[in-house]
Amino acid sequence: MALAAAARPFVAKTSPRAAARRTTIVCASDPMQVVVTGAGGRTGALVMKKLLVRPSDFRARGVVRSDKSAAQLRGWGASDEQIVMGDLLENGQEVLSKAMEGADALVIATSAVPKIKPLSLIPVLLAKLTGKQGVRPEFTFKADQYPEQIDWLGQKAQIDAAKAAGVKKVVIISSMGGTQKDNFLNTIGNGNILVRSGHCSGEGSAPPQQQQGCLVGPLRGPSSLPACRSAPPDLRAIIALPLCASAVAYAKGHGPACPAASFRRRGSPFPTLQVWKRKAEKYLVDSGLTHTIVHPGGLIDKEGGKRQLIIDVDDKLIAEGSKHRSIPRADVAELCVQCLLLPEAENRSVDLVSKEPGDAPPTTDFAALLREMPRNCSYADMDATVAA
Ligand SMILES: NC(=O)c1ccc[n+]([C@@H]2O[C@H](COP(=O)([O-])OP(=O)(O)OC[C@H]3O[C@@H](n4cnc5c(N)ncnc54)[C@H](OP(=O)(O)O)[C@@H]3O)[C@@H](O)[C@H]2O)c1
To answer: For residue 177, which atom of ligand 1 is closest to its CA?
Structure first.
């Protein structure tokens, strides 16, 4: 179906209370077939729920990887045909081609999920007791579920599958902070160290990925050195050094094309969540598919529809001194649903936060919100890091 041409305004009532405060939204004349990946996730599930309550506008299909998530979708009225089970890393191609069949649009809500390291909470607690500032918990990711795999390769596979299936629009729920190399999100996870082509395959890790002359392979620290087969002397030397300093030295020595050059935070070499997400975003922008990329601020599980939304670009909303830095997942989900139909959302990439409830009238006109801020986030910094 033609996305923009099909859009027309209508007034939705979601509950007796909601009827009192009518919300102007947009619907389609024929149901739009929408695939939601990460439909068991906290925001992805809300997108699915919102699509499922509008059967005349949308025919939703959710990709989930657990029985629990599938049961949740069934509880919201999804039929078996509307649920595709599978892990994007295990049987991704099969799952995606099944999910995308006949689809008009795709909402990508998958994400690598950082897990807190329990022992790292001890220094955090001690710091709290002693009043020491700046001590944060440490995070990691499940084996082979690193940002590189989920946020870059997993999202790239989804974009490729969408394109192959003739999907017309792709919405990505990503994250703010991508332009700030020092952003906390860009430092977590003890992720992958970047190593040179052909030399390393960390034990128990995913196969390294070729990337502009460098190979990216997860190493879990200096103890991974024995797993690094036939590493050249220079590489052995840098791994034997404290990791942070060594990788920066390595990146410097291998020029700007080496992705390691981009990842520095107090010398941290770790390619991170936002960079991998951003790489997928840039891939989508370059794909020629109609797209909307939403970068929420800190996600909170509060009721949606109560706050005024604010959009901007390039992390200005989380710059030093900014007042509003968070947004309910329900409001992010609503914007994504609106973006499926609004012409104003086509080929846009925006940051998103919300004011506090009561501070300003809640946003109801999403087209106006997007029209008022016509700029898009820049990906100029990604030109050197996105693989050909
Ligand atoms: N947390 C924040 O404050 C914050 C702030 C800004 C932006 N964001 C971003 O906003 C987005 C939504 O966040 P969220 O907290 O709602 O996400 P979430 O609950 O962590 O959901 C992530 C989803 O991805 C799925 N997934 C991960 N690996 C997969 C795989 N291999 N195959 C299939 N599915 C896979 C997960 O499946 P399972 O359900 O089976 O685990 C889950 O449904 C994310 O990109 C996040 O990084 C978060």
So the answer is: 6
